[in-house]
Amino acid sequence: MSGSGTTADDDPPLQTAVWRLRSRACWTDAAALLEPHAGTDAAAALQRTALLTERCLYTGQGWTEAEDALRTAEAVARGDDERGSAASERGHLAYASTLLAVRDRSDEASVALSRSAALLAPASPARPLLDFRRGLIAQNLADSPQSARAAFRRAHAGAAAREDALLLSSTWRHLATLDLREGELAGARQGFAESLRIREELGFLVGTAPALISLAQTAEEPEAARLRAEAGRLFRLLGGVPTWLAPYLGPPAPRAGGTD
Fold first, then answer.
1. Given CA atoms 88, 90, 96, 99 in this order, what sign does their dihedral have?
2. Distance CA 23, CA 211 (A)
3. pLDDT score recorded for residue 247
4. Residue 111 CA, distance from chain mean position
């Protein structure tokens, strides 16, 4: 799932409903809307897998459901583009498992993304997302910031060309993280600010708190405190998601209703 996150008037009603649930951390409910189509429709199967993998990344839960969805996506994939996209999803799920120390699947992640790169055509719409995921592995598993920057830049250019706003917000954020690591405070602040702006415009609530915390790292007081307080408000509103922000924020309030 590229993550464009639009809810324009001409979007299919199903996609609008999926996006609204996803943006509010209701991944299981969003995936349930796609389940009737996932057994025969490769695009729906891939999107459902991506939703459940994102749930794993944000909550540390739901690994079995994500694996089952991935196997379905692999089974219904037919052409090289669909098989390449399914391989990208396998690599991303293996990356998530490794990153959160559930199980070390770093070799599986690298092999799957290499397979995806071999299957996807150079002009495939799935290329920018693949480049972004290869950047994540280089940044967070291989500790290779130079390779990560190159991959993120390719993903950034591809996301801009395809007008994939949510992916663009992620490439801005991760390029800014590399800038911050290298002491480039001005570049980091610009990237974090752009990422936050896009996510607020899209209404991507579950991704807004991390963007606020990132921007706070480059701000002076009292602006930094205001950004952290707003992040804490969203974190508690969504019931403590993403869970890895907990050390920086207060305890979440109980969530009312829903399965996520």
1. negative
2. 14
3. 87
4. 20
* Cα–Cα dist 245/200, whole Å: 18
Cis previous bond, 222, omega within 30: yes
pLDDT band for position 251 (cuts 50, 70, 90)? low
Cα–Cα distance, 245 to 36 (Å, whole number): 34
The helix (run of H) or strand (run of E) holding residue 92 is: helix 80-99
Rounded mean pLDDT, 160-189: 97
The token pair that represents 33 in the structure block = 């809307």
Residue (of 69, 126, 56) closest to 98 by Cα position: 56
Residue appearing with tokens 């998601």: 241
Say whether pLDDT at 256 is over 50.
Answer: no
The continuous run of DSSP H or E covering 151 comes out as: helix 145-162
Average pLDDT, the chain: 92
Mean pLDDT of all residues in 86-103: 97
The percentage of the chain sitting over the pLDDT mark of 70, rounded to a whole number, equals 92
The single residue listed with the structure tokens 């993998």 is: 53
Higher pLDDT, 122 or 2: 122
The residue with tokens 């290499």 is: 114
